[in-house]
Amino acid sequence: MRHFDIEMNNLKKKLLDMAEIVQEMIKFSVDMIVKRDINLSQEVFNREREANLTEIVVDDTCLKLIALNQPVGADLRFITSAMRINSDLERMGDEAVNICEIGENLLKYPDLKPLIDIPKMAKTVVAMVIDSICAFNTSDAELADTVLSKDDEVDELKITIIKDLLEFMTDTSDKTMLIRAMDLMFIAKNLERLGDHATNIAEDVIFMVHGKDIRHLRSF
Amino acid sequence: MRHFDIEMNNLKKKLLDMAEIVQEMIKFSVDMIVKRDINLSQEVFNREREANLTEIVVDDTCLKLIALNQPVGADLRFITSAMRINSDLERMGDEAVNICEIGENLLKYPDLKPLIDIPKMAKTVVAMVIDSICAFNTSDAELADTVLSKDDEVDELKITIIKDLLEFMTDTSDKTMLIRAMDLMFIAKNLERLGDHATNIAEDVIFMVHGKDIRHLRSF
């Protein structure tokens, strides 16, 4: 195996490590809300530092790979896509941290029945995240396509959740109930954002595989 | 002037065009809310398509510059920073679109008095955006530093706004009032996100100028 190929495999491995950390952060943050387990937030906060460090290592690896090997074509696309995916992953970790910070407030109070469609939305978003990483790992543009197709579903779930919570807020004069409903709205927004990042990664995978920039295609 | 230098200037010009479009989108979206001028949302939507197209052109220019010139050191840092800044700018445009979409609902109703600290927060965020772009344009790491220092101010303003709006929500049983207060909360979140993107750009400028990755430095 050429030295360059070893280095490229090494980059891929580092980015998959980053993805692993961030996927855990997302899973723990979602479980924290759905299973009402306050201890899980610490798991997320512990991993944030690791994610931040790994982000810098991956970026540095990409820059060195370009500077020392002058890649072109598919190799260059792989490296620049890796930089972009790396950045999306780090921001996904931030969303997980945000969910936990809201969750720490939310879990001070008893459960707001119902959690509406939050668990369903979380499940869909986590599946998008897993599939987008898997599509990157196996260079599977078709799998990346299925991630894109779930984006509308997530948007609709978010709209339903916010509408349902608003009904709930109108019917209560209890301030703590109001706060909890708002916290759930913010969590729905964070979940939507996680779905957006998974969509970005899926678009990068398609670009990486086909060399075709499909971003914003639906809006042209 | 070398052909490569001409190409680099060309990239910088394209990225500044992108920044110009996005700055206009942000300004119009903020003015729409603060001045209650519904017509401004159309100005934002019109520019979104242009921003999306320009994003793709800038990225393509960066890839070609790397592939054809094999830059290293400061030149390579400039190009990869341009890719990152380009991506932040496009997402800032999305935030402006989000603000307008919320604004179109908000402006159906009379003004919710007071708008609390939203205009103040918007002013701070717009200044951060302008300074981050200017820092990029003039390679001014010190100006970029001042952008970073405003991040905490924006966070504090957001916390105050959400607290004030919550008080307001507790005191009303009017559903439309509740919706308007919520819309303003979401706008505060969008403004916070715009500030985050300006911070990202400022960090990229510092990396570009000094070759030092300062992301997450405060958390280590």
Summarize the structure.
The first copy, chain A, has helices at residues 3-34, 40-69, 73-106, 118-138, 141-149, 151-170, 175-210.
CATH class of chain A: Mainly Alpha
Which stretches of chain A of 5+ consecutive residues score pLDDT under 50? none
Number of β-strand runs of chain A: 0
- Main β-sheet of chain A: number of strands, strand sense, barrel status? none
What is the helical fraction of chain A, as a range of percent?
over 70%
Q: What oligomeric state best describes the polypeptide chains here?
A: homodimer
User: Greatest contact pair?
Assistant: A-B, 37 and 37 residues
Q: In terms of structural class, how would the helical and strand content of chain A be classed? A: mainly alpha
Tell me what the CATH architecture of chain A is: Up-down Bundle
Mean pLDDT of chain A: 92
How is the CATH topology of chain A named?
A: Methane Monooxygenase Hydroxylase, Chain G, domain 1
Note the run of SSEs of chain A as H and E. Answer: HHHHHHH
Please characterize this protein's 3D structure.
Two copies of one chain form a homodimer. Chain A is mainly α. Chain A has one domain: Phosphate transport system protein phou homolog 2, domain 2 (Methane Monooxygenase Hydroxylase, Chain G, domain 1). Chain A has helices spanning 3-34, 40-69, 73-106, 118-138, 141-149, 151-170, 175-210. The longest helix of chain A is centred in the last third of the chain and has 36 residues, at 175-210. Chain A is elongated and about 65 Å long. The model of chain A has no long low-confidence stretch (mean pLDDT 92).
